[in-house]
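Email to the structure team, subject: Small ribosomal subunit protein mS26 model.

Hi all, the expression group asked for a predicted structure before they design truncation constructs. Nothing fancy, just the tokens so they can compare against earlier work. One-line instruction: predict Small ribosomal subunit protein mS26, return tokens.
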Amino acid sequence: MFGRSRTRVLNIINISYIQSRSKRVWVRKPLGSPMAKSKIFRISPKPILPDDENAEIKRLYDNYKNSMKSLRQYFFEQSLKQAESGEVAQMKHRLEAQEHERLMEENRLENEKVSMLREERLKIQAEKTQQYVLASLMKKEGDVKLHDVQMEAFLAKQMSTPFIQAENIEKAIEDALANPVNFNFAIDLDGYVYRGKDTAIDMIPEEKRERLNSN
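Reply from the structure team: attached below.
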């Protein structure tokens, strides 16, 4: 019996209408049913409206959007006023003011601490700069004194070196002619030095030969 009633219910759902007292009562199409074959290739034409009607529809739609936006803004402002006037809002403002005062005091203390550290750092830096400048000046003064001493020693050495003066130039020429100096020399494989251009090796004994210094 249950199987028959179930089959009957399914048959009623699958048909598009049922009989009720000699009248056709249309029922909803089942969700799983496909599109009707007569509507598969049918494209509904888009309604063509006049320009003035389109403009009127757009005007009404814009008015609706503006009105709804104004209402939302109004309700939002009213909700803010109610929230600010409540006891919870006042408590919140009081806590925010206390927190702001605490942060300002903490900021002031931190600024004082940073200012003290900055002054100390600048003081140490000024002392180091002063010491560096003094050391540079002392070093420069010492270099100047050393240069003066070296210059005086050089001048004294130059003054002590004998120069040929105008009054004794003839005597110097005679001495140079009487004592000619030959700067030519030769060195053999054993390291002996033979000075002069016409010096004969065989004429100099081995014990009197000048040996080249290895240093």
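The radius of gyration is 61 Å. The first helix runs from residue 2 to 14. Ping us if the truncation boundaries need rechecking.
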